[in-house]
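User: Before I run my own analysis I want an independent prediction to cross-check against. Here's the chain; please return only the structure tokens and, at the end, one sentence I can use as a sanity check.
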Amino acid sequence: MKKIIKLTESDLTRIIKRVIEEKKESINESATVNGITIDAKYGNLSTKAGQLVNDYKILVSCSKLGITAYEGPVAIETLWNGKDGGIAGKDNTGKVFSIPLEKAKYLVSKMKNGDVEIKTEGSGTIAGISGTCKVTLKKRK
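Assistant: Structure tokens:
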């Protein structure tokens, strides 16, 4: 026999918030691409391949229609494997981003090799405003 339970709006809101918080706790601070782990601890990115670890700080220059909206450092709060096997994450500005598998393979291999500076770019929408970001990963010593 099925039981029908009536919920108030506040009950439903509380349950949804609890589920979201539990889901946040299950998100990792790392992703794995081609057997290489990329971490987002302390806001920087680092790769781990065996005992070899390379750390990178992230600098961005984001603009729309040629007008710079933000230029400076960005910290990564969380990372996880994206749906296509690439990388997905959230930065300290609240922007959720994804890096397709092929680009993720390229970036992770450059990081694993210890390249001093890695440049890439992407596009996206933040708060309904579309634009592009040039990203530079600078190796930390």
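Sanity check: The beta strands are 30-33, 36-39, 45-49, 52-64, 67-74, 76-81, 87-91, 96-99, 117-126, 129-139.
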